[in-house]
């Protein structure tokens, strides 16, 4: 029950955090739409071979999830802490696909060298940090721990 109070407590916000949250939401919605349309094949190339699901299904499902998460970031500010943790978890969940792209030397999105694919890996932790910072999720969690 105490954990629920941590997530439900009022998260800190500011103009930079709000801009960051809305910007991340817009980026996720754009990425989601691109999964469903003009970048569909490029995203299919990133689905790891070891994943026992149809590549097109994975791309379509992840696109729908990204649109939903983006909408939640933009339109549900009262739930931003919970949404922040879910978005961060999503970014962690898709990270193996980025690792697979490097390991299998899959060319996609202009990432056609190991250096470019390796450099791309550095951005996933930044997305996690962006989600947690812009929603106040990390600060709310730390405040909850400090009040114990």
From TrEMBL:
One of its GO terms (cellular component) is membrane. The keyword Lyase does not apply. The chain crosses the membrane at residues 21-38, 58-76, 83-102, 122-141. The keyword Membrane applies. Keywords: Membrane, Transmembrane, Transmembrane helix. This is Putative membrane protein. It comes from Glaciihabitans tibetensis.
